[in-house]
Amino acid sequence: MDRVIKVGMADLKVIAGNGVLVTLGLGSCVGIALYDRTTKTAGLAHIMLPSSKLIKHNQNKAKFADTAVEYLLELMMKMNAQREWIIAKIAGGAQMFSFKGSTSEVLKIGERNVQATIEVLRQHDIPIVAQDTGGNYGRTIELHAANGILVVKTIGHGVKIL
Amino acid sequence: MSFSFDNLNPLHLDILKEIGTIGAGNAATSLSKMLNRRIDMKVPEVKIAEFKDVEDIMDGAETLVVGIYLEFQGDISGIVLLVLDVISAKRITALLLGNAHRDALNEAFSEIEVSALEELGNILTAAYLGAISSFTGLAVKPSVPYFACDMLGAILSVPMIQFGQTSDRAMFIETDLINGTERFRSHFIVIPDIESFTVILKALGVV
Question: Which of A54, A87, B176, B199 could form a disulfide with B42 if both were Cys (CB 3.0 to 4.6 A apart)?
Fold first, then answer.
């Protein structure tokens, strides 16, 4: 049985070789999975907000798309990951509550999180090889260090293997 | 004054608990009237936790739950989220709609059940905010309710992100609705935005 390591809200973890990184019940947050297949190094962040630059209270690096990607890369490099081989898979960013004609900015945060994540990964030249984002439902994701597979589970919307 | 859940003092916490208790009491009274039977609300528990521990406080991020979400605006603004486990939500709709709906325990929520639960969110929120309003003299008006039925973690991400703008911790007011021997597990989460906290404390003459 592979070891399973939980990644909570505004949290991130890095492992290598084997094991599974799991984040449960992603809603409007985004799960950013980075993987280097040459060293089997896997990193998973559960970000809540698009950018640390818009917010004064920004000590927790795992909370924001920009700082979480930087910190994940830093930790993966420390574990001897090959920078040029690192790829990304992303999931989440749902709008959990929707209503016709709603203009609530609070509820659209999922979409903004996804856009910010894509932009940050582009700035770091990390290709996004798979993406399962948006919709109005939650997701549980598992990143497998042995092969880089990202499993996305939902309630009533099936299971996807990315 | 810069207010944050990261540096709450005991006085602030007491005030938040007191507001929670009054709000919950008012909400229980409204619900009793609506159901025409006595509904009690347990004295709420106020919990403050780091985000990564949130899913341990309520059991299981993957548990299927019902969430009713509202926003409020006025002198203070913020969001309200009522979370019920699916069984409790089904039992409450049965009470609201009559026994004809008793059998539908294992099915998805019908349109009329969703409406009933949204109305429940409306009534509890109006009563709760009404209590805060008469307590502080501040004007506040709720939005229409939004319904979702999905994983607890995903539903909670909405209020957690709101907390995340200003803090690394989140505050919950947890309370059970009690109907005789029947207990409906619920979490009623009220999050005034950070400026509103200062407004509330000022209105009460604390800062």
Answer: B176
